[in-house]
Fold this protein.
Amino acid sequence: MFLSELSRRDWFKALGVGMSVAAFGAVSNARADFVHKEDKTTGVLLDGSQARPCTLQNDGTVVRPAMNPPVISETDVLVVGGGPAGCCAAIAAARMGVKTTLVERYGHFGGLATGGLVVHILGHWIKENDQKIQATQGIGEEMMKRLEGLPNGIVKREFGKNPTLDAEVYKYLLVEMITEANIEVFLHSWASDAIIDDENNPETNRPVVRGAIIQTKLGPQAILAKQVVDTTGDGDVFVPAGVAHTQRMYDIGLPYRIGNLDRATPPEGSKRPRYLGDLTPIPGVNWVNMAGPSLDGVDVRILSKLELQHRKQIWKQVQEVRNSPGYENVYLMETAPQIGVRITRVIEGEATLTLQDARDGRKYDDCVGIGGAWHGDHIGWHIPYRCLLSKNVENILTAGRSLSAEPLMSDLVRVIPNCWVSGHAAGVAAAVAVKTETSAHNVPIHDVQKELRAQNAYLG
Ligand SMILES: Cc1cc2nc3c(=O)[nH]c(=O)nc-3n(C[C@H](O)[C@H](O)[C@H](O)COP(=O)(O)OP(=O)(O)OC[C@H]3O[C@@H](n4cnc5c(N)ncnc54)[C@H](O)[C@@H]3O)c2cc1C
């Protein structure tokens, strides 16, 4: 209730104290500072007549009424999911001059690399002709270079090493890069459905994706697009679009950060406590990675259970560190706001990456990037464009952890630099498809490769 609507006596009552006039004056002034002057309304009277709730039927089923979501944007390339793969895809497409829209369910970009506190950049070194080289170039490398130029952005950026970035600095950098590229952004928007053309492609008889539905505080809204890139990591658009896929499960964890390590004074010769983690760009702060049970990462009951379980475990782990001599001042600084789901849905692509092909160094004509493994002591593996393409639905690409790969290979595909590489490729391919007015399946691959090279990607 507003102060002006209250009598003085009511106001005292509301505060629960007998107050002097002087004190009231002070409260009144504080209110003037606190309440914004233009308390605007939308002018819409919500009388409930437009509400369309689900209904509970006699047989216990819940029925959702049909509705026509308003179209809030029409775009060329729609990228859904602003993690490492999605940000690279959106930046790459936008830099080619096509209208690009990026949808993200949270209020920041970076996916697991920021909200999941997965800050250790693995797998971008490979061996070529017995020389160690960095396979991740293009937008991923540009990001690392720019992080170097920001205070506390990245550490261990040394030849042959795996650096660690800072999640907050990376969030900031992504805002910079995404706004520089003039990308249309929808944050706080949870994609929940695909929009399919009401007619299949007459030549291939395959369904054609035309956009996505996002859930917002204003209800569902539609975004129409010429090409869609699903980088949600969980296939939240390609699954409702009917894309053939498999479901995987692997080690759901919850990384966290601990502070005050620079004030630790362990006695000489004492054993290093468990759960100390690894250094980050912030002095005295370590990040601690976590494994966990391999369960279904899209089942909300499981995710809820794991959040509770992991948070208890983290607390115990930190207490164990604090109980070690010299580490009494270490504290739990932050747990990842986003649970660490390593893998869920993976498309069945036009091609599938296999570990054997990677080991054999198999080359593909439609190579759109080179991936590396964790420790960089092996040859790089080619990423064929067809791994980003669904084999049964058109005009939808994927990249990052959900591209087509057999299970052992997914473990390599999903590390951050490899997601940068495949995201970069998906963005360029989607933009080439728009520019050449063709489907993602028919995109002229040489144009894609030429543009990727022009954007400093490494294709071997
Ligand atoms: C615990 C853990 C430890 C790991 N350790 C390492 C490591 O040390 N080094 C390494 O390189 N990699 C590591 N990885 C792997 C790496 O972090 C991920 O595989 C990588 O971040 C995947 O990138 P992505 O862009 O494909 O997906 P994500 O990072 O998952 O990004 C997906 C984005 O889409 C958004 N999104 C999801 N659903 C929707 C929706 N419906 N609507 C709108 N937006 C949506 C998400 O919010 C997110 O921003 C680890 C992963 C985990 C979970």
Q: What stands out?
A: Residues 1-32 have pLDDT under 50 and may be disordered. The first helix runs from residue 8 to 15.
